[in-house]
Amino acid sequence: MRVAIVASPYPLEEAPSPPLGICYVAAACEEAGADVTIFDYIVRKYSPEKLAAEMDAFRPDVIGANSVTMNFKGAAAIMQDAKRHNPDVITMMGGPHVSFDAESTLKKYPEIDLIVIGEGEETIKELLPVIHNRSRWEHVAGIAFRKDGGVYFTSRRELIQDLDTLPKPARHLLPMSRYQALGFPVSIITSRGCPNQCIFCLGRRMVGYKVRYRSPKLVVDEVEEILSYGFTRINIADDLFTSNKDRVRIFCDEIKKRGIKFTWTAFSRVNTVDDEVLAMMKETGCDTVSFGIESGNIEMLKRIRKGITLEQARKAVQHCRNTGVIPHASFVIGLPGETWQTIEDTKAFAESLGIDYGYHLLAPFPGTTIWEETDKFDVEILTEDFDLYDANHAIVKTSALTPKDIDAFMNEHLHVHEEIWKEVVRRVDEGISTEYEWLRVTGHKRMNLVFKILNGDLIEEMGRFEEDKGGIKDLSAKIAMATDTDVDLTEKTLADLNKNGFIKSRESSSGVEWFWAFNRFSDNPPEI
Description:
Elements: E1 2-7, H1 20-31, E2 35-40, H2 48-58, E3 62-66, H3 72-85, E4 90-94, H4 96-100, H5 102-108, E5 114-116, H6 121-127, E6 143-147, E7 150-153, H7 176-182, E8 186-188, E9 191-192, H8 203-207, E10 212-213, H9 216-228, E11 233-236, H10 245-258, E12 263-268, H11 275-283, E13 286-294, H12 298-303, H13 310-323, E14 326-333, H14 340-353, E15 356-361, H15 369-372, E16 380-381, E17 396-397, H16 403-429, H17 435-455, H18 458-462, E18 464-466, H19 472-483, H20 487-499, E19 503-507, E20 511-516
Parallel strand pairs: 1-2, 1-3, 3-4, 4-5, 8-11, 11-12, 12-13, 13-14, 14-15
Antiparallel strand pairs: 5-6, 6-7, 9-10, 16-17, 18-20, 19-20
């Protein structure tokens, strides 16, 4: 059996790392005995024609996609394209969005045959052997599909209690060199589950309230495998990495025991850190911890069931300063009952911390308490256009604030930061910047260029030359013109990608051809 897994388009501006959920699903398919490939459209341009060509080359029996709310519509459209190209292929989707919006999805998109609900690894292993026998689907727990003119839900799939039974994520199926070119960290998990009750979050609903842990030894084995690809930075994507200090200690001790050197980041809560735990993390390479504080108004924190206090947030920041870990805080604007006063409280508190922070606009995803119990809160959801659920658009209103009000606050915040950035760029352009400012601006320009190259498949489209051409300078000239980028920066960027083995050249029948290596150490397996 052949299974194609689609990594659906996701804004590169959102700093995507190699898609972890997709890799777990692909590994489960492999464990079920399938021949698996990943059609990655995160770091490659998507088109129906490209999908058709790749389906013809691989000939999948099953094609599936994962998605979150903000890229759901794009993922569903790819399933439609797949079914139109080959009506016999079985199409399925999984992930947090469809897990809580399965009925609506199946009714709106007849091209999608079934939905995997919640954790998918065990479901996949049970489903694939009977995938061609639809009469058997109703005996597979944890899925939804159309039956007798309606949507049929099978029995609930219990959460995987022993996470050590999970196969290692199938990152070997990803075009890793493209992700390395972006320079974002690779995500791993050491646990699943979230004991907290925030009304705007899916964590508890998707992976359960009880935290389940992986063996620290297996986690560090995975870290070593990631480092072997050439990555040097890892993000621990647990909902709450610091939920258990003893587990953190064992994890850090395992890193020290093996003498592994890398940098890493983690998500945490302000009421779960102290000098001791942060010092352990810092000693083993953790340089940044992100805290979701959400609001600077204590009544708002109670309303959203955050379970923290502002004093705990201040102490967490101080613990970070004491140990040399960089703290980052995030806040949500547009929460239930939001007023100009609560926004001003949040702004004042964020500024008082003296650390890097960012704002997100409330996006009430299907499955969250806000989505399902809107009538209990002072908030109104104004659209179900899921493309707008990216935390950058005001899609709710409260009795005191309109979307225009919420956007006005965000625009003012962004304007201040844009003016600061413009001043830094001016200093760099005039040659009077600090080294740090120069690195920031140059790195930003380089990243934007790589975004454009990946989004436009420019290496593939512009990397063919006749026999008397084909060097880095020739490639740089074409791409600089196509992206309206400085030629020197383009040449330095491409030379660096080539030096690191991310892009390579080879002789073709007509001259020279440039291409993305599948990974930096080998051109194989070739991309479909």
